[in-house]
Known about the structure:
By secondary structure, the protein is α+β, with helices and mostly antiparallel strands. The protein has ten helices and five strands, in the order αββαβαββααααααα. The model is unreliable at about 250-260 (pLDDT under 50).
Amino acid sequence: xxxxxxxxxxxxxxxxxxxxxxxxxxxxxxxxxxxxxxxxxxxxxxxxxxxxxxxxxxxxxxxxxxxxxxxxxxxxxxxxxxxxxxxxxxxxxxxxxxxxxxxxxxxxxxxxxxxxxxxxxxxxxxxxxxxxxxxxxxxxxxxxxxxxxxxxxxxxxxxxxxxxxxxxxxxxxxxxxxxxxxxxxxxxxxxxxxxxxxxxxxxxxxxxxxxxxxxxxxxxxxxxxxxxxxxxxxxxxxxxxxxxxxxxxxxxxxxxxxxx
Length: 260
């Protein structure tokens, strides 16, 4: 009703003999496109009492007072034209079209863009927790990340938050590395580390020993990229536990980059 009111849709102005189809566009429904205001897209009207007249009305009956959107229609003479339309057309603020509804007389079909289906297969998740694992597998492939944001814009904020967590994780790991290998304020005998964290900072120290390379925050971030997704997930879990124990709300203070 919120969207109907926004579009000045009065049900008293609808034909009681027809079945109307609208697409509800609402800020709370952002799985494909982010909407800022609620609205309706009028896509079809079908006379259920006299179906033989439906070809004459062309799918849309005028609705008095309705100021919402009408479906963007295009005529395709062949399947090839439809494919080109799906893969090169635009949809709202996106440079893609996830799919289309195709009418052939009184029959209606739903056709998906193959690129959209491919990206949907990439993320293959039902919730944010599952997506996190899949994203960790894909984050080093920028083109795929761009496609995910393009076809599933509601995941953009999820990706941003996850990248912020990874950044804070790197600051946390670098701080530990500095304490154990630079200032040597701590040692593994008196202050043992969790296995996952020890493996990572030991691998950082190997970079210094083998290449005589200064260990910095940047090197730490590059090193985390080389770790398999399941190990990054383990480190994130350890970092999250640390945040809960410290009650720091996820923020790690800035760490000065020190030389060995």
